[in-house]
Amino acid sequence: MLQLNLTRQEKNVILAVTFAALVGIGISYLFKVMPKAGEIYATPSFNKPLKVNINTADKEQLAELPLIGPKTAQAIIDYRIKNGKFTEINQLKNIKGISEKKIEKIKAFLILE
Prior knowledge:
Layout: H1 8-33, H2 44-47, E1 52-53, H3 59-63, H4 70-83, H5 100-106, E2 110-111
Parallel strand pairs: 1-2
């Protein structure tokens, strides 16, 4: 039987390196099994902040916002057509599906011009 005389610190280093290797192998495996898992990091919104003018944006631009899907994007456009340009971001709460909480989460991505 092979017996190594390692100090406690050496054993901890070997344990940490082994753990890191296993985590790396696990992540690599997940990206092979679920290739779309890594795509979120390749989107433009991760490379630069997305700013959308809610008075001029089309449906596709609005739908790129976090927490805003195509249905809500269309509701924003319909509201804009019916009521005119937004004068303040908080007017979004007049649209079905947009709450005060949602406005707080997305207002960093919005501009009014």
